[in-house]
Amino acid sequence: MNCSNIDIKSAIIARNGIIAALCSVFFSIIFSVAFAFIISGCRGDKDPDPDPSVDPRYLETYTVVFDIDGGSPEVHELTVKGGELIPRPTERFSKDYIPVGAGLYRGLADLYSLGGWYTEDGTEWNFIIDTVFSDLTLKARWVEPIIDVSEEGGNTDVAKAFNYVKNRPGTYTIILGDDVALTPQMLNVSNLKITLVGWESERKITQQVTPAYAVLFDLRSNVELTLGNNITLEGGTNNLVYVYQQSIFTMLDGSKITGNTSFRSAFNAAVLVEHGTMNMKGGSITGNHSTGLGSGGGIYMGSTATVNLEGGTVSGNTSNREPCDVFMDGTSGNNVNNTCRLTVLESSEVEALTMVASSTTTPAVTVASGWTGKVNALNLGGDDRSNMPTSISFWANSTVLKPTDNYSLTAADVSKFTLGKFIATSFSGAATQTISDTHRLGDEGEDMGKLVAK
């Protein structure tokens, strides 16, 4: 055997092994680099977070400016270190808004709502995760309060607006641009507050023909309804507003309720309040009529009703026999704690107030200090259908007028109430008696605010 041939073959084998090994290492490196590149790309680590220990931006401080864009209050500039979060402003920001016309608006239709803070390129700033690495201006973005109700059901924009709010508790304003006939509205969504306003001039809401005893606005479950300027509720053959289950009904200057005729035998008036509250701060309730004996043409107050007359006028309303603007029905409760309460404040005017008591409930009018209004006819009544003298005696032992807390009733307060008639509540139509011929309202001492024989 030739030894030189063996050496050559060994050398070739060794060389090939080295080349194979080098190739293996080379491809392993290429594969590792490619794999790392792919994984890195999948993780999105193309631009990894800066290292605070080496990135000089963390050593800088930056100025953050809040542009309130016409709103208020102004926000002071902030100085923030690089990489820090910006604290969200906590002020109650607002920007005045002028309604553009009829429609449904959020809130009271006089303010924009703040829709967020945005950078100059239109990106909304996220105060939870976004950090600062340069000087920054954040601008307030305001949202108009008008709401699109075009997709709601209803044959008018007002009907569509009511259908929208019934499913979304909150505070809303409905501005009417025209008169409208509306189907009865049951409003029983807790925490729902609605204000009605007429656009530029008086707008009337009438009730469409409906089944007997339907109510135009039936308020329940803590609902609040306010009649604002240029709104008139007109007509109807049952209550226009029923205030029930701790709901609140308010009338403001420029509102009116008129032309209502209620045909029920009792518990009738344009506004019926029972287990709820009415605040009359302005406006008028006039020209309404009720056919029932136990009714008031303007306002009927049933069990645990609270009515606060803080302004406005209730006059020219009638029941089937007598002028009757406010009817306080003490017979609708079961004890003195369930009776109705009327408080007269400021400059409210009542033409004819009728108060009816039973043997267990006695309504009383609370008179506040500084009241400058008047009651032209205070009619008293009782549920004794056959013996008027007994009922009158009952009134004489009860308080007709009383002061508010921390205020003493005065003779001047009493003189604002002109005593009218005694009205029996007999449904057979018992005659009335002119009680002012034989009695007066006491204006001194223990008789203050009580019925006193002349």
**Global structural class:** alpha/beta
Strand share of the residues? 25-35%
The radius of gyration is: 38 Å
How far apart the termini lie comes to 160 Å
User: Count of DSSP helices?
Assistant: 4
Query: What best-fitting shape do the alpha-carbon axes yield?
Result: elongated
Low-confidence stretches: 1-6, 33-48, 334-338
Please describe the structure with a list of short key phrases separated by commas or semicolons.
single chain; alpha/beta; Immunoglobulin-like; four-stranded mixed beta sheet; 35% strand; elongated
List the helices and strands and how they pair.
Layout: H1 3-43, E1 61-67, E2 78-81, E3 103-106, E4 113-118, E5 136-143, E6 146-147, H2 157-166, E7 170-176, E8 180-182, E9 185-187, E10 192-198, E11 203-207, E12 217-219, E13 224-227, E14 231-234, E15 241-244, E16 248-251, E17 255-258, E18 261-262, E19 271-274, E20 277-286, E21 289-290, E22 299-301, E23 306-315, E24 326-329, E25 341-344, E26 349-357, E27 364-367, E28 374-382, H3 388-396, E29 401-403, H4 411-414, E30 417-424, E31 439-441, E32 451-453
Parallel strand pairs: 1-5, 7-10, 8-11, 9-12, 10-13, 11-14, 12-15, 13-16, 14-17, 15-19, 16-20, 17-20, 18-21, 19-22, 20-23, 22-24, 23-25, 23-26, 24-26, 25-27, 26-28, 27-29, 28-30
Antiparallel strand pairs: 1-2, 3-6, 3-7, 4-5, 31-32
Describe this structure in words.
Helices cover 14% and strands 35% of the residues. The chain is α/β, with parallel strands linked by helices and 454 residues long. It has three domains: 1-48; 56-95 and 112-143, Listeria-Bacteroides repeat domain (Immunoglobulin-like); 146-453. The strands form four sheets. The protein has a 24-stranded mixed beta sheet that branches. Strands 2-1-5-4 form a four-stranded mixed beta sheet, with no helix packed on it. It has a two-stranded parallel sheet with strand order 18-21. It is elongated.
